[in-house]
Amino acid sequence: MRTKLPDSSSYFFHLQKLEGTWERPQGFVQNSTFLTREEIQAVCSSVTAAHSRDVQWKANEPLVLQLQARMRGFLLRQKLSERLHFLNTQLPAVITIQ
């Protein structure tokens, strides 16, 4: 396994023999099945952010449900008001038909 250092030098580590060297070993093949520190950090950050969002939504769930109920009530009252207005404006036509 090759590790790139901040000064752009490389360190080679044999995972089975647990030996390391600064010089490229003969027959070296890069094993890319291991995650780099940056990849691990990115995954940890995204999982932590997702968990934080989930906890935040769960904490505000009663508030969201209350807001949803109030909005549904408002929309229903608005529809009923429109229907009542329609019936009141059609009253002369209804009286004429009867």
From TrEMBL:
It comes from the Eukaryota. PROSITE patterns: IQ. PANTHER family: RAS GTPASE-ACTIVATING PROTEIN WITH IQ MOTIF, RAS GTPASE-ACTIVATING-LIKE PROTEIN IQGAP3. This is WW domain containing adaptor with coiled-coil. It comes from Cirrhinus mrigala.
